[in-house]
Batch of 2 targets.
Target 1
Amino acid sequence: MSTRRSTSVRRRGKARATANKTAGDAVVSARGPKTKPRRPPTKAAPKQPTISVDITNQQEIVAIPARHVRSAVRHVLLAEGQRQGTMGVLLTTDAVIQALHEEFLGQDTATDVLTFPLSEPGEPITAEIVISVETAARVAARHGMTPQAELLLYLVHGLLHLCGYDDHDAKQARRMHTRQKKLLHDILGHQT
């Protein structure tokens, strides 16, 4: 009685060659040796969200934990289908945002939020958001909100602009406002 031994060799990723050591013949099969069932191809695990958030706080008007800002950025981007990205958030004063507003948009006034998209459409989102905390504190007092909630409103607003929302006409503004309100509600509900 003869002992049969088989060896399998992968050849350029296409087919397996099985050589019968006792008979000296070779059989090439795209399915591999008959003794092992072929496993279905495994799907690659979906990429985990990777959203990097760098926060620079240049003001001392309102205390807001950096983790709240990071959490809000990640929440909005994930809710909008952005699983990868790099965001810079600058919390600053009216004077700084006014200078940036004039430099980049030609308007010599303070504003609440500026967004600077740095990536091309279809690429993972990369951007900078500048928020005037001074404006947030002033407006919050007029509307009976906390300065932190107003600041997060500006953050959500800026992020939605980066995700393709616009508010130049009434229909777009209603759509953006509805989405902004829901996201802000979700974010404020998670911060305890």
Target 2
Amino acid sequence: SVALSGMTAIMGAPDHKVGSNADQGAAYVYADTGSGWSQTTELTASDGAANDMFGSSVALSGAIALMGAPLRTVGGNTDQGAAYIFGNTDLNLTLNTPSTVSHGVDYTGQAILTNNGNSASPALSVILPVPGGTSYVTSSATQGSCNQVSGTVTCNLGSLAANGGSASSSITLEVTAPGGTVLSNHAGLALSTPVLSQGSTTTVTVPPAVTGLVNASVTVGQSVPAESFTIVGTGALTVSVASSNPTLVPHTGLDLSSGCDTNGASCTLAIIPVPGEVGTATVTVAVQDGYGQKGSESFVLTVKAKPPSSGGGSGGVGFLMLAWLGVAVVLRRRMRAGGDLQQG
């Protein structure tokens, strides 16, 4: 006997020997993993006996299976027969993935399957396709095992216990898509009708950054050369500028060019120090994207005082000093000449 429902099939084997019980019977569950059908579990009656012929008839609807054992002895009634229900389950599937991830790094998606029903589930398989724009790294499960074939990961979890039994499947991927790409994540349960599935998206981001700023030094009264720099980031960007020394460089003395809110923008910053002020100020340009990621770069502006003049006052003083020295020498010579006349 055979029953098919969605991506699951059950085949009865009523003549199967279980332990030492000839013809007790069994049934086998198969799941379509995306790359072919594979056996996931064997079902037998917990109170089975020889000659029951369990599996002579099978029926399947979603995750609930019904098995007939027409020759089962009930009480003292030989061959009265019985039916067995498997998989009275209430399954819930959730998929956890990051909302953003940077290009070139790894991220992990986790599918959590929970059985809230009052009966243990049949063997279950979770399917995790590898999204476009990523490359497969590894996968694992908290019970059972996972394998990857042709871009699809199948995790065979086996049965989940009733009343909250759960298992999770994880897939780790490397991001190969450029910034701005939206990755489509997906997880599906093979043993359900309709197929139980969840989806999510992850946006590939470029970490915001500011590059190209250089330190500057001028003499008071000189113009400060405009700073040229580049902004990188994903989506709508917010750029701000701040000075560590508003006495020297106030906010009104910082003029940012327009169009600095997109990835790859080439920007300029005009700096106007307060006239007559000297000192240093650290100017920081910061950028933030719509995902809350931030980046910044700073430069130091130094405004120096004017050096002393090389002409005028200091030269005049030197000339006067030399003139006075000359007068003193002449007077001294005359005094000596007068003394010699008196002695002669």
